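Quick entry, no commentary yet.
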Amino acid sequence: MTYRQNRASIYDRMKSEGIFTWDHIDGEEYALASVITLPGELHRQLQEAASGLAGIFKKTLSIVQHNDELMLQLGIPEAALETVKLTMASQAPTVVGRFDFANTPQGLKMLEFNSDSPTSVVEAYYVNGIVCEHYGFKNPNEGCSRHIEEAFSEVVRDYREQGCACESVYFTALEWHEEDAGTTRYLLKQSGLNGQFIDLADLRVYEDTLCAWDGEEHTPIDLLYRLHALEKIAYETDTDGYPTGEHLLDLIARRKTAIINPPEAFIAQSKAFQALVWGLHEAGEFYTAEEHELIGIYMLPTYLDNKFIGSSSYVTKPIYGREGGGVAIFDREGACSVKDEGEYYWEQPMVYQQFAELERIQVETLRGEKEGHLLWGAFVMGGRPSAVAARLGGRITDNNAYFVPIRCEDK
């Protein structure tokens, strides 16, 4: 079979099942039918790094969550300060999280932690298995889907032990956004919870309660999974200017509404939080010897001011940017070599991170052979290392990057 025939066989099946429908985005191929090998040792390192760094980030929250001045420096909106002080029992700061890594000649290096509202979930937990099955390959993510139900069960149990009602459950995203809505519906199905999907536009704050509005009545919501960034919620208003987002944050802080991912995931999402972790490591403080070793192996020097001029190439990143938005790469003399051409996130405070070049590979696409830079994503689900995903794009991984299925070394 040709590449095109294989691709049609794989993705037409998924479209008919209605689970994964965004194999093309904006008319361009997104999900590939090419498969690359995930070496066993790299897989082990990805899981070790994801598990260890999740624990380190969780531990670091303890010195941040009750220091308002420090949280403001990390970019937490003032309206969210009380909300993000809520703590969870998990060994990780999030329920569904994804670390992104570069596999460099110096080893695996973590670039960022998508702890608040990560995507690529359906691709890693569902699509990858279908592609491997088509070709007869062993799926490195086999069995990982059970981690989703386990993670959601654990966080619901945690919320109930804190006195939160978790009877009325809703999962929300922007209905018009095919990827976000599809990802949210998939998580709802896999979570094992008795909930329902609601368009983000149909959420209301009514009589000091978060509600689902069906056009006729308001239904109170106890537990909300939202594929919507907390920093966006913090500033959202109704059409009449009422600060609905700020009111919702207050409801969460008062435990009238429970959310997934939990509020503390928003702190860990900040790239300034990475700078804090690196600063504590560099000072030889706070962490155990084993934790310092893990940070030294898998993290990159990251600062709130530029310490790289004249010594090494570096990257500037907005503290709450996503999909490569607002990212720029500089050489050691401070000359910009590549920058994101999008309009978003440039107004945010930036961090400075040592540059790590992504490995280059070639894959087959509908447009023929394509060379690009490979980014590895390692999920932590309920605090445990879980599925792995790969993206192929430019030196800055953006919305135009391909999803690349992966296989085990042994067939």
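second:
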Amino acid sequence: MPPSSAPRPEKDHPSERITGVVIMCLFCDEDETTTTLDHGVCLDCKEAIERAEAAGLTGYVPDTFLARPHAEVEVAARMAELLPAPRSRR
């Protein structure tokens, strides 16, 4: 499309910039300025998670989220399985 001939509205305020970032706990939203975070989780929540796991209260975890070793795959052989066989020309 051709550029619009209508003038663009002027900005009433200067552009905004992010000048700082505060990281928060994934579970209770405590920020890093008020508590210590370990991999995005505050120490209180981490202790609660460890107690729940020790009691077997981890809840349902889908198989796709569980870590399991990956088998080595021969790429050329796998591609041969996935691609259709070449067709002969008549």
